[in-house]
Amino acid sequence: MQHHQISEHWLTAFTPKIIFVTAAAITLLPVVPPPVALLMGFALAQTTGNPFAAVTPRITHWLLQLSIIGMGFGMNVHSALKAGQEGFLFTVAAIAATLLTGALLGKLLGVDKHTAHLVSCGTAICGGSAIAAIAPVMKAGEKQISVALGIIFLLNALALFIFPAIGHALHLTQQQFGLWSAIAIHDTSSVIGAANKYGEEALQIATTVKLSRALWIIPVAFITTLLFKTDTGKIKIPWFIGIFIIAMLLNTWVPLVQSLAPLMVKGAKTGLSLTLFLIGTNLTREALRGIGRKPLLHGVLLWVLISIGTLIAIRCLV
């Protein structure tokens, strides 16, 4: 009887971990695209849960950065510079419009000023990375940070499925979709996932424009200190962008790296699938319930307005 109880206890304790590890391993298979990996993670969050919740955020953070660096080995400096120049004006206009619209919507809906600004920064620049960088500068509370992150992660998950479908329905070119996804999707992981699904050229443009957009964390952080009248805190500069640029330079001019590039890019795409799976496992019922209706409405309206506005501009000008 005692042996039976021990066996039952062992199964109860280890089954969620076995399921989690097995599901994570499945996402590494080439037949599993990033959107499916995200859905698997989300399904797991709603059923067995994430038994490694304490460590997955840190793993996700590093895995995403390594995947982005790996993508750099599949890009050429000349095409990247061209994409960056084309996306610069769109990026500046979109960031300014998003921050202003976010502030106005926050006031109209009665959303806490700190939460509204965090969601606006996440929408304007690079999702969770921007929130993590801006939060200490404006001395945001834990609840405000978790609400903003919850909104951004939820909308990122939707974008991964919605954007490619809209792009195909509107017959957007690879260039148009690459620009649009880089500007209108919050997190780099979902930008790369959506653009990768759309096409190779869209992926290269989206990745380059998105990473150049991430550098706007620095000026926006300084603006935040003025708006919230706080002392300038420690600003987290996305260092991995520098390594991404080095990877591009090596792939452009070093033949040995060029021969290894396809393998590195393949590994980066596999890493992205695992990253999105881990992100999905954080979208638990508790996390979704804790968001609140007004902040969620603020995030959705802001995202829809910016997505439509940038789409119209890109279709007219590109």
UniProtKB/TrEMBL annotation:
Lineage top rank: taxon: Bacteria
Classification via Pfam families: Cons_hypoth698 (PF03601)
Tagged with keyword Electron transport: no
GO CC, one annotated term: plasma membrane
Record's keyword terms, sorted: Cell membrane, Membrane, Transmembrane, Transmembrane helix
Topology class, membrane: Multi-pass membrane protein
Membrane-spanning intervals of the chain: 20-42, 62-81, 88-109, 115-135, 147-170, 211-228, 240-261, 296-314
Keyword Cytoplasm attributed: no
Localization annotation: Cell membrane
Protein family according to the UniProt entry: Belongs to the UPF0324 family.
Name of the protein described by the UniProt record: Putative integral membrane protein (TIGR00698 family)
